[in-house]
Amino acid sequence: MSDNTSILFNSRTAMFDNVRKNFLEAESLPPACYKDKDFFNAEVDNIFLKSWLFIGRAEKLPTPLAYFVVDILNESVLVTRNEEGKIQAFQNFCRHRGARLLDGHGVAKQIRCPYHNWGYSHNGDLVGAPDMKRTEHFSKAENGLLKIRLESWAGFLFINFDTDAVPLLDYLGDLPQTLEKYDLANMHCIKEIDHSVACNWKLYTEVDMEDYHAPTVHPLSIGQQVFPRQPSNGEYETTFYECPKTVSVMSTDHGPVFPHIEGLSGKAATGTYFTMIYPGFFLVTTLDSCWWINKIPVDETHTAVGVGYCFPKTTVARDDFEAISSRYIERWDMVIDEDNKICERHQRGINSRWSLPGRLSFHEEVVNVMNNWVLDRVLPQESATDVHS
């Protein structure tokens, strides 16, 4: 373990006591938490390999025998829809000698290894293994693809590498009820974009869940917003911005917008929820649409950022959809570009060997909550009492 991380783990009181305080008395995480390799590896082991991770919408598999591949955490995941319509996830390597099976997305009658032509069904069963008849005690039944847990909520697909993890709906707690009126299951993702951002994954989750930066970083695309933290019961945080208009277009845009989601009522009809499903799936649900920004770490200072833009299926079917939605996409793309740049600039600043933790404003309550969520899972178990005491 590096000297830097030894300090992080062994000098717990000095390093983390100020993070553990009430957010108006607290400081941000020590800069080493955003750049130290061993701390990052502990996050991968204790957070990302044990949490439910968003990998895409169900409409990415529009027909039976469709598939797509997700490369995540130095693993490759093959997601398929079988002939009966069931969606499943498997490790994307051949059980013969481990060659990578598929790339990208498409439709395939059978999953075939490009090395020795072993073939698998979309249920993961080994159905073809040429010239293996002389191999003693070989069984096709014992050499199917290795399954990965996959569960869904409202059309959003999640995987979990931990076989002992709680079910997805238990993980989400009361979030499905909170967002029920947005009818997310009947949304359709019209565009996805992948970004590579040179920052630690936590910096990007933090910028998503505080409104302090909005007037400075997003003067035209967002402007001034205040969205306080909301009660939650699950592995997520959510804030709410009360506004009778959609936040999917620029505040200065006075052009036509789409109608509100059919059946929208209650609190959902009065504004927008900004939700972070731990560890890094940010979902914005507003009056007429939704979008997500998904963060998966590549290494301690680089993050894969996936973005998706969704509308109700009835909205997508409108004759004027393309003309109106182009303004939505322009605004969303602008926000993402601004966040990408400020997060990279933030990372360059804290890379300084003299960088120190900073105090938080009242706008940054959720930043403090998320910082402590990470510490609760990354610090050695025996340190939890020490840190909170």
Automatic annotation (TrEMBL):
Residues 52-159 form the Rieske domain. Its cofactor is Fe cation. InterPro entries: ARHD_Rieske_2Fe_2S (IPR015881), Rieske_2Fe-2S (IPR017941), Rieske_2Fe-2S_sf (IPR036922), Ring_hydroxy_dOase_asu_C_dom (IPR015879), Rng_hydr_dOase-A (IPR001663). GO terms for molecular function: dioxygenase activity. Keywords: 2Fe-2S, Aromatic hydrocarbons catabolism, Dioxygenase, Iron, Iron-sulfur, Metal-binding, NAD, Oxidoreductase. This is Aromatic ring-hydroxylating dioxygenase subunit alpha.
